[in-house]
Design a protein that fits this description.
Elements (H helix, E strand, L loop, with lengths): L4 E5 L3 E2 L2 E2 L2 E7 L5 E4 L3 E3 L4 E4 L5 H8 L3 E4 L3 E4 L2 E4 L3 E3 L2 E4 L17 E7 L4 E8 L5 E4 L24 E2 L2 E6 L3 E4 L2 E2 L3 H4 L11 E7 L3 E7 L13 H10 L2 E6 L8 E3 L2 E2 L14 E4 L1
Antiparallel strand pairs: 1-4, 2-3, 4-21, 5-25, 6-7, 7-10, 8-23, 8-25, 9-10, 11-12, 11-17, 13-14, 13-17, 14-15, 15-16, 18-19, 18-22, 20-21, 20-22, 23-24
């Protein structure tokens, strides 16, 4: 393990719940943050994603990174894996965050989803993003206040939900549920709208940054794969990440996708019994 990356196992309880969790902490003045996965825009499929997925072990075999976790949400349709979350690699937008939601394909919402970004100046931030019809990827410091129990709001733009900037990231990954922003607990799963079972105990994966430029990658076990370990809510994870010193943090894909490899070795037990193949991963090296 590089001397600028450390790995810790959690105490037996977190947020007053039985827990099995791990964190990797990396000094980002020395470490490199990457998003893994074969992903981009496919005109034949008509969407952003890829034709292949990988288990974390397959990502390790291809990339040999000391720390690998699962990353963004995705779904499979018509022989193509569609990314629901933002991916930026080497300054290139490979996939935007999903920019719509509907239960019946009649009433449409246009939520802003969370993103964790390393900017061109190597600073880090969490924000909410929206990819417009004219292919501008806007970044906001607050979410559009959507709620499934209320009427849809207008489509986000350069001035709604606030004055936007164009996201100029070097590396970025999207998720669902900004956990922390500027040191404050946000947990904006209601506004972001995609269902990640935020209020139930589940396996979880999260990414955050501390004020001292140390990145924290978090993963916890759940669904009683180990008896009595049900997992955490997203609010639980937000509180844990804050306690670990993070100022910004984002919830990533969880459930059966959650996992962390340390030098190729599993940490938590996958809730499905074996590693799930996922579209994207995050690595530190």
């Amino acid at each position: 393990m590089p001397n600028y990356i450390s790995v810790y196992k959690s105490p037996s309880t977190l947020q007053n719940k039985q827990a099995i969790a791990y964190i990797a902490v990396a000094d980002m003045t020395k470490a490199t943050f990457d998003v893994l996965g074969d992903i981009g825009y496919d005109a034949t499929a008509g969407g952003y994603g890829g034709k292949s997925v990988n288990t974390l072990t397959q990502f390790y075999e291809k990339n040999n990174r000391p720390i690998i976790i699962n990353a963004g949400l995705f779904y499979y349709a018509n022989a193509f894996y569609f990314s629901q979350n933002l991916v930026v690699r080497n300054g290139v937008l490979l996939a935007p965050n999903q920019n719509y939601y509907s239960k019946d394909w009649v009433t449409m919402w246009y939520p802003t989803l969370g993103a964790f970004s390393q900017m061109q100046d190597n600073s880090f931030k969490v924000s909410w993003t929206y990819f417009t019809s004219d292919k501008v990827n806007y970044s906001y410091n607050k979410p559009a206040p959507n709620d499934i129990n209320k009427a849809p709001l207008q489509v986000p733009n350069a001035t709604f939900p606030e004055t936007a900037t164009v996201l100029n990231a070097k590396t970025a990954i999207g998720g669902v549920g900004v956990l922390l922003k500027d040191g404050d607990v946000k947990n904006t799963y209601v506004e972001e709208m995609l269902d990640v079972s935020s209020t139930s105990n589940q396996p979880r994966t999260a990414i955050g940054i501390r004020a001292d430029k140390k990145m924290v990658l978090f993963v916890c076990e759940g669904r009683n794969v180990t008896p009595g370990v049900a997992g955490l809510t997203t609010l639980d994870v937000a509180n844990v990440m804050k306690a670990l010193g993070c100022v910004d943090a984002l919830n990533l894909d969880g459930g059966g996708s959650s996992g962390m490899l340390v030098n190729g070795k599993e940490t938590i037990k996958p809730s499905g019994g074996t590693q799930r193949a996922v579209l994207t991963g995050v690595s530190l090296h």
